[in-house]
Give the backbone structure.
Amino acid sequence: MKPVDPATASPEAKAVFEDIKATRNVKEVNNFWKYLGNEPRMLKHTWESLKDIMGPGALDPLTKELVYVAISITNNCEYCMASHTAAARAKGATDAQINELYAVVALANMTNRLANAYKVPVDEAFKT
Amino acid sequence: MKPVDPATASPEAKAVFEDIKATRNVKEVNNFWKYLGNEPRMLKHTWESLKDIMGPGALDPLTKELVYVAISITNNCEYCMASHTAAARAKGATDAQINELYAVVALANMTNRLANAYKVPVDEAFKT
Amino acid sequence: MKPVDPATASPEAKAVFEDIKATRNVKEVNNFWKYLGNEPRMLKHTWESLKDIMGPGALDPLTKELVYVAISITNNCEYCMASHTAAARAKGATDAQINELYAVVALANMTNRLANAYKVPVDEAFKT
Amino acid sequence: MKPVDPATASPEAKAVFEDIKATRNVKEVNNFWKYLGNEPRMLKHTWESLKDIMGPGALDPLTKELVYVAISITNNCEYCMASHTAAARAKGATDAQINELYAVVALANMTNRLANAYKVPVDEAFKT
Amino acid sequence: MKPVDPATASPEAKAVFEDIKATRNVKEVNNFWKYLGNEPRMLKHTWESLKDIMGPGALDPLTKELVYVAISITNNCEYCMASHTAAARAKGATDAQINELYAVVALANMTNRLANAYKVPVDEAFKT
Amino acid sequence: MKPVDPATASPEAKAVFEDIKATRNVKEVNNFWKYLGNEPRMLKHTWESLKDIMGPGALDPLTKELVYVAISITNNCEYCMASHTAAARAKGATDAQINELYAVVALANMTNRLANAYKVPVDEAFKT
């Protein structure tokens, strides 16, 4: 698939592009949205979900970007690693925080497999 | 494999169990460590890594527990979900934060696949 | 590993290459098979399985190619995404269908994690 | 987390529950939605996305349910396997189709790794 | 799906069941094969592939069972962990070997993510 | 992140680099360690774990490298595939062994999904 040119996008896609630009105060949407423009319904649902969940809420926005990076590393999604690392830095993440995040991601992927391998039963104290 | 009984564990395993109890101020280690006691070298490396990385650092400990939960959901590790959710709650996580975390995890797993499917090229602005 | 040149392949590999070309009515096998030629036993098993399962059966061949693309996106296998998208198009898949497929893949990866996160018990009505 | 009782749910969650029941012509929503009621924003986004994408479109609804089952197997999500297999059967899937689907899922997960292992370069003919 | 009763299986499935029993010198096939009997074509392909690859070859059979266990832990497949651990033990695996295997599996899942996170470029010396 | 230049690394990182070079009898550490030098604590833990577990033990070092390659293929980690395949070859792995390994990896990923799809219950004989 080719990215959709915002200038010639469908009205539905164009409306989302405009909302992204206004919400984020940027002049151009990034590549992810241009490609998603090929499926305007999914473009709209994805944008509305992200706008709603990734902004201020119960968790601060930086924490949520770091979680996003952590999952993108686990799933090996290069684009998502790049875009959400940039977003985390824009929200104040330091090199030290990103390096420590990588360590946490690595350890979690390690202990996940140890728990699976030994089929460790959940402690009573952890049940809710 | 059966869990290792701390009372009859090898000296190497016993030393780690004691350090876990002292560091966390608990009377008994949780199941994960008892099973890992079957491989005392890995027990030691895993504990020393977690003790070093998961405590106070560049990121606050609660953020790191939330990242751990996020990865454990992505990898479908039930034990790790339970133990790190308990740890997150002990560090102050609210229901609202955990529910929002689940939403972020879900969205990241969704957009990871959209970026893969469209093979979205990384924007110049995201390259570092 | 280097791809195996069909001209100098082992007799076992050559026999599979010939069957692929005859079955698909093509002049050359695609790269996947040339690399798999390094392990002629696996080349044979893989080809015989695909020939048997991916042709007409209980499901139509296009549906099966779309399933193949969906899994390849989920696993982030670029080669398989490319080859099975090409196969799907050759069997009639339209851009609209492929875009909608991407949306389904993304949603499934999202709701899979929501079900895991909340440890949703299977409804009685869904048990068989 | 406990499931949300529709009788005492927040107005936002209740509105989604009512729409699910009306759209699907059922008396009660299934467990997935009750748990998701803990995060009404995500409940709404997930439902609106699924309602929009999983109904009639470029692909027929049965094909989309089968894709959903395929991904749920790949990710090992038991709830999603159960609920979407039930949905596929309700839309006409036969045992023979489901068994053949399982075979396709297995083969795709196999050849995905063969392509990765050999780092097979994408054929020119597959590039678009 | 229900398991297929070998007594009433289709001739194709029955032939595979008989070959499994004769090859392995067992009185009954294990559950995996009974369920796979629902799709006799896939039953046959899976058995023929495993019989051919998992026996003596370039690698010794125990090594191959350990690899199988390692992947099953990584993918969190409980049945495959159980059946291939039993097969590894039958081929001589000791507790010490299985515990060490678990450690290797955990470390590989950890360093896989570190390499992804840092996008480490492949050293010239490792290219072939 | 940029790789850390060993000449200007922190004392903690430099000490690990020196130990890697001495242990492996090489003149330069490979890229993985240079990038990990950005997080000296994780550099140290990772190196100490690998040095301890991947050397001679209950399993021979070649078997452990093959397991590492198998998991790296399953997780699609290109760097780890390259570095541990090189390590396996240095420990004596032949082309025939590597090709057979790829076949085992592919089959395990296949049968993992068949066991999941059919929800095969663990045979009594496999329970320990």
User: Anything to note?
Assistant: The mean pLDDT of chain B is 97. The domain at 1-54 of chain B is CATH 1.20.1290.10 (AhpD-like). The CA atoms of residues 27 and 97 of chain B lie 29 Å apart.
